[in-house]
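Researcher: Here's the sequence for the chain we discussed earlier.
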Amino acid sequence: MVEEDLAAGEASAEEAYGPLICSVRGLPCPELPSDFVGSIMATVRTRKVPWWRRLSGWARSPQSLTFTPLRLAPAAFVLLLICAASVLHLLGGEKQEILGTNRGDRIPVVLTLRMPEARSVQVMGSFNGWRPQKCERHLREDPTTWSVTLW
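Model: Thanks. This is the structure I predict for it:
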């Protein structure tokens, strides 16, 4: 049934386009010269596009970024090494002076106490061998403030 429909369709196409098909088949087919493709290609001029125009065209076109976690592993490892080297450099470098003074490996700590009714204040602990150390009043900020610098 399908083959009969196809044969009927071909027959009707042959009737409609018969004169055209006969005239195309009757045209002479000349041989192309051997340098035909070369002569056509020689007339086509290629234009070199400047790099900045190529870059702007690339930047304006949509870009997709795809990655897998395994491809990020080397970059993450390098970043981890850089962070570790930075921390080691900061910890292993020369110690910075705090408050402009540094006594060996000790860091100064300023203890401040505000107690208006006190006549004297003493501080003692393992940092000074449990010997009492007198504090001085600082009149600069407040006459009721006691302060001492502990090393």
